[in-house]
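Q: Please design a sequence for this.
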């Protein structure tokens, strides 16, 4: 469930949903902001295919760690740019695309793959409801509070979200198992041994 929480509180849907507002804050006119948001959609699609290529080659855990580190870096850059008063222009777009690339190329697809693999066979179907509900709850929560965060903290909000991505990175390094190349039965056996 930790993954389901952090997949959302690292800001993906809030940032994508409010991308036009973020781009306008960065100095884009309305047309450029909307066109840039379209560009984010294209980047999301392209990098999802990158994940499909790598997920069974380098592994879920490795991709999740790379994605968490990349998202942390991109969010930290956005926060620092804001703090230094340089939150403007094409650089904001480039860093948000970088953030999205690490999410779509690593975190997003790997999250759904991992949560479907980690539950025991006999309860997998019914157990999947928990990460789905938790993920959607935190999605709604982030999308709801993000505008208020921007009002209260301005674009340094990205530093707060970077902290969440950093916590996700630490969790991934310390506790995320590798399931690549293992059958569902082997994964179930691994969890039983870990529990004992």
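A: Design:
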């Amino acid at each position: 469930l930790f993954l389901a929480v952090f997949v959302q509180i690292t800001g993906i849907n809030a940032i994508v949903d409010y991308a036009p507002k973020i781009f306008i804050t960065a100095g884009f006119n309305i047309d450029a902001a909307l066109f840039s948001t379209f560009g984010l959609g294209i980047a999301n699609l392209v990098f999802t295919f990158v994940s499909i290529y790598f997920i069974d080659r380098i592994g879920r855990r490795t991709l999740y760690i790379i994605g968490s580190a990349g998202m942390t870096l991109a969010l930290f850059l956005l926060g620092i740019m804001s703090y230094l008063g340089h939150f403007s222009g094409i650089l904001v777009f480039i860093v948000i695309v970088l953030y999205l690339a690490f999410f779509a190329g690593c975190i997003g697809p790997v999250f759904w793959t991992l949560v479907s693999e980690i539950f025991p066979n006999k309860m997998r179907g019914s157990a999947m409801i928990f990460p789905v509900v938790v993920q959607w709850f935190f999605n709604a929560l982030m999308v709801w509070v993000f505008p208020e965060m921007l009002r209260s903290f301005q674009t340094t909000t990205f530093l707060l979200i970077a902290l969440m991505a950093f916590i996700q990175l630490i969790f991934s390094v310390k506790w995320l198992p590798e399931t690549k190349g293992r059958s569902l039965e082997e994964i179930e056996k691994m969890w039983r041994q870990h529990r004992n």
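Q: Thanks. Anything notable?
A: The chain has one domain: 2-195. The domain at 2-195 is CATH 1.20.1250.20 (Growth Hormone; Chain: A;).
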